Amino acid sequence: MTIETAVQRRMPIALDQAFASFDEHWSPRVVTHVNDYDVRVTKVEGEHVWHVHDDTDEFFLVLDGELEIGLREPSGERTVTLPKGSVFTVPRGTEHKPTARPGTRILLFEPTGTLTVGDRHDEVPDHVDVTTGHALKA
Amino acid sequence: MTIETAVQRRMPIALDQAFASFDEHWSPRVVTHVNDYDVRVTKVEGEHVWHVHDDTDEFFLVLDGELEIGLREPSGERTVTLPKGSVFTVPRGTEHKPTARPGTRILLFEPTGTLTVGDRHDEVPDHVDVTTGHALKA
């Protein structure tokens, strides 16, 4: 069954199939909705950009590979490391910058409409997609 | 690092370590919060109970094993199968009943305070924990 058929028939989505449907890094696909939230999956590699979501937390689950997230907190800057199979929530208002090993795949949970680069951000490099997430395609 | 230390220091949580901290089935642990939502993980095996959440969708990700979800929809009853690595959202207002193979582990997103047996349900068997989720303990 194609991804589009699964979506149309409201069938479960196999994440491997979702990941096979695109190549871009830092360019999330919305795999399903939960109330007014998106569940998004993204291939990530190299550096994202320092940014902050003023009004929402952002949830990360590492499905493959390894993700680091730099955090600028009131107490100073630190970096947390998320190996495969770990989860972390960046609190709203906390400036953060994800960096990933090649081959890393993550799942995100955040309100529909949340921009990949937040409400404030450093200059966005070409390899970072400024988006609220893309629909899955076959 | 223990789970409690990771929580206290706001460090990433390894899901394997979270699962190692409890044995019960159908008894979710809250691994992190996202705004007013919980991310919960649960060991599941055998049958849950027909129930419905009137006011919220419910998201399922199968981390290990296989989950079936019976759905009573306006068009009739159907069952969806979620192998490892697949996702599905049960829409609000849809009566549903999960059933799992031994060794199945799932991750759920739902609003904080959501009861495991919903707003309306069949008689709850002893092996199903009626809860809004438990905190992680070391």
UniProtKB/TrEMBL annotation, chains A, B:
Record-linked Gene3D superfamilies: Jelly Rolls
Keyword annotations from UniProtKB, A to Z: Isomerase
Highest taxon of source: Bacteria
GO molecular function: isomerase activity
Pfam families, A to Z: Cupin_2 (PF07883)
UniProt cross-references to PROSITE patterns, sorted A to Z: CNMP_BINDING_3 (PS50042)
Keyword match Isomerase: yes
Transmembrane region(s): none
Domain Cyclic nucleotide-binding residue range list: 18-88
Protein name: Cupin domain-containing protein
